[in-house]
Automatic annotation (TrEMBL):
Its main location: membrane. Residues 3-91 form the DUF3817 domain. It comes from Flavobacterium macrobrachii. The keyword Cell membrane applies. It is found in: Cell membrane. InterPro entries: DUF3817_TM (IPR023845). This is DUF3817 domain-containing protein. It comes from the Bacteria. It is a multi-pass membrane protein.
Length: 94
């Protein structure tokens, strides 16, 4: 389960950055491409976000996280680049 969480954490972080890239770079230059990409990128990011949150709860006991650690891991899903940090610092034994 830990390997899956590491993969989801990285994929969720990448999808978050791709979503930002679509909003900040592509939207001002090409509105049609932005609209075309918005749904698939947004859907992928949403599914990965939900998987990240659920898997964090599931591996809490396996990783011996305190409530504070779990809160930090959960908050990381809201910040760009934070899931990469969590994957390196908090997830052990993968």
């Amino acid at each position: 389960m830990t390997k899956l969480f590491k993969f989801i954490a990285i994929a969720e972080g990448i999808s978050y950055l791709v979503l930002f890239f679509n909003m900040l770079i592509i939207k001002p230059t090409n509105i049609d491409l932005y609209k075309t990409l918005l749904y698939p990128i947004g859907m992928a990011h949403g599914i990965l976000f939900i998987a990240y949150v659920l898997l964090a709860f599931l591996i809490k006991k396996e990783q011996n996280w305190s409530f504070k650690d779990l809160a930090i891991v959960q908050m990381a899903s809201l910040l760009p680049f934070a899931t990469f940090y969590i994957e390196k610092k908090y997830v052990k034994n993968a």
